[in-house]
Write a structure and sequence with these properties.
The complex is a heterodimer of chains A (368) and B (204). With 368 residues, chain A is mainly alpha-helical. Chain A has one domain. In chain A, 63% of the residues lie in helices and 5% in strands. In chain A, helix 1 packs across helix 9, helix 3 packs antiparallel against helix 4 and helix 9 crosses helix 10. With 204 residues, chain B is an alpha+beta fold. Chain B folds into two domains: 45 residues, no CATH class; 128 residues, 2-Layer Sandwich (Alpha-Beta Plaits), CATH 3.30.70. Chain B is built from eight helices and five strands. In chain B, the strands form two sheets. In chain B, strands 2-3-5 form a three-stranded antiparallel beta sheet. Chain B is elongated and about 90 Å long. Chain B starts with 13 loop residues before the first helix and ends with a helix. Classes of the chains: A mainly alpha (368), B alpha+beta (204).
């Protein structure tokens, strides 16, 4: 009993620490990556006793600044909802990460520990459900501020998020049909199987269209460019117009955490989770842990080496996807509002529906 | 005569309308910049001689050499004995369009010179850095070649330069000034930093 609680607490702390650190470092990555892309140097002026750490200190300075800024609540706004809104924006993001397996099950002291906080058999529905709750953050923020600008921003945000949530759900149906499960753990394990013995059955290979639909839809959920109409800080005022200090920071912490979480979901569903191609553990290959290459070569590895390689693989895939999201965010210009809606309803949704139909037909045909 | 220009609206091809190929092209451009710059920075970090990754000049530490013709803060030239070259002829004060030069002339004890400036004051806040005083001076007594370009201060008094201050300025001659050769070198693509200039000054 006590051991179970310890395991659960341990995984929770591990995941939370990693997400929070990831979100913090992403603020630095965003500055530096965008700078390198556009031939600039990027933030590098903040220093502690002359130590600048290539601008990493800027992130600390930012956090300090936000903590000590005035925490303003509009006098005629709704005080309770105004303080609840940032939490609604941040909390669901962290909860989503609970169902993402970040490593294979390991055996510690005769007890099987799943490297995943919550082993839910409706895992992907859980992801979508909490994605849906995140809408409340933006809506409440706009509504409770008692400001027309914030309200309009909140409306824009909720319209966008609801539109893209449909794409999110529809594009996930493809992989769900193929893998026949909603449980992320099983889904990940099914991606360690191979076509003709050498092409891994990753989600991106069996459902490429679903990936191309899911990625932009999920980026629209994070409300970052090219889908940053709800925020549009300097041009069209967003739902957090009346927020300042750390509460404003919480929206953006949530946004950066969402990048990490989104990378986690994408990895799990489309990139084979923690699996490294051709790497098997002792259970999958009856006692022969290690690389089993398609040309017959076998490289034996220790059980724990496999676990470590797999967790590192998960981390590497996460980093790759976060890099990709940053790159997308700093490459493409913002959509116009009508384009945003058209892309969602008239272009992505039909494609998603056709994808589901074709996937279904192929599965039927293969089952015969 | 009226010319008619027919504007053609650019029709996207079906290939372009699928978005993804064009999006991919954009990503390739930005990613190339990212990786090239990253490689150059990484190369520098381990001590390799790479191409300068980014053209930004980190201002307080690095400076672009300013042109030798740049009109910076004024200075008064000295005779070998340290007295000002100025003969208080009032040419600069007359030429000054801002009327920011205030000279009080006194009779010189030196037989060869009639007058000398008892006070020579310039109000920098009124100065428009036109350089007419330098051109008006028959004695080459006032110059604007200090290379001093950072005018920051906490009070107006700091911008009111008296004779001693203007004469004293000779000390920082080496710091900001750039020779024509150095400046041309910069134009050839060599960035001369302030540190380099100091090193050169010591070397000679």
């Amino acid at each position: 009993m006590l051991g179970d609680i310890g395991i659960i607490l341990g995984t929770i702390v591990f995941v939370l620490v990693n997400i929070l650190n990831g979100a913090g470092i992403l603020t630095w990555v965003e500055r530096k990556q965008s700078a390198l892309m556009s031939d600039r140097i990027g933030a590098n002026r903040a220093s502690i006793l002359g130590i600048r750490l290539w601008g990493l200190v800027n992130s600390l300075a930012d956090a300090l600044k936000m903590i000590f800024k005035e925490d303003f609540v509009p006098p005629k706004g709704n005080r309770l909802l105004h303080s609840l809104a940032p939490m609604f924006a941040m909390l669901p993001v962290f909860l989503t990460m609970a169902v993402i397996p970040f490593g294979p099950p390991v055996e510690i002291a005769g007890r099987v520990v799943k490297l995943q906080i919550l082993d839910l058999d409706i895992g992907l529905l859980f992801v979508l459900a909490f994605g849906g709750i995140a809408v409340y953050g933006a809506m409440l923020a706009g509504w409770s501020s008692n400001s027309k600008y914030a309200l309009m921003g909140g409306m824009r945000a909720s319209a966008q998020m609801i539109s893209y949530e449909i794409i999110l759900g529809l594009s996930l149906i493809g992989p769900i049909l193929v893998f026949g499960t909603l449980e992320p753990g099983i889904m990940v394990n099914m991606q360690n199987e191979y076509f003709f013995g050498w092409i891994p059955k990753w989600g991106i290979i069996v459902q490429p269209i679903a990936f191309l639909l899911f990625l932009p839809a999920a980026m629209a959920e994070t409300k970052r460019a090219p889908f940053d109409l709800p925020e549009g800080e300097s041009e069209i005022i967003g739902y957090h117009a009346e927020y300042s200090g750390m509460r404003w920071g919480m929206f953006f912490l949530g946004e950066f955490a969402e990048i990490v979480v989104l990378a986690g979901v994408l990895t799990t569903v489309f990139l084979g989770g923690y699996h490294f191609p051709y790497l098997f553990d002792a259970i999958e290959k009856t006692g022969q842990a290690g690389f089993h290459f398609p040309w017959g070569q076998y490289v034996p590895l220790g059980e724990w080496t496999v676990v470590i390689i797999r967790m590192a693989t998960f981390g590497a895939k996460l980093c790759l996807l976060m890099w990709l999201q940053m790159q997308i965010r700093w490459t493409y210009p913002r959509f116009r509002y009508d384009q945003l809606m058209r892309v969602s309803w008239r272009e992505m949704m039909p494609i998603a529906l056709v994808n589901i139909a074709i996937t279904g037909l192929v599965i039927l045909w293969l089952a015969k | 005569m009226i010319t008619v220009k027919v504007l053609k609206t650019v029709e996207l091809s079906a290939w372009q309308k699928t978005y993804y190929p064009e999006l991919w092209k954009g990503m390739v451009v930005t990613s190339r910049h990212f990786f090239v710059n990253l490689a150059r920075f990484a190369g520098r970090a381990v001590g390799m001689k790479t191409k300068r990754p980014i053209v930004t000049i980190q201002y307080p530490e690095e400076r672009r050499p300013i042109s030798p013709r740049w009109r910076a803060r004024h200075r008064l030239m000295q005779r070998p004995d340290g007295s000002p070259r100025c003969v208080a002829c009032m040419m600069c004060e007359t030429a000054c369009p801002d009327k920011c030069i205030y000279i009080t002339a006194g009779e010189s004890l030196d037989g060869r010179i009639e007058k000398y400036p008892v006070a020579f004051e310039i109000d920098l806040l009124r100065c428009c850095f036109c350089g007419l005083c330098v051109e008006a001076c028959p004695e080459d007594a006032i110059r604007m070649d200090t290379g001093y370009v950072e005018f920051g201060g906490y009070s107006r008094g700091e911008y009111y330069m008296d004779r001693e201050f203007l004469l004293k300025d000779l000390g920082m001659e080496d710091k900001g000034r750039t020779t024509h050769a150095q400046y041309r070198g910069e134009l050839d693509g060599v960035v001369v930093t302030r540190v380099d200039l100091l090193a050169q000054a010591k070397h000679h």
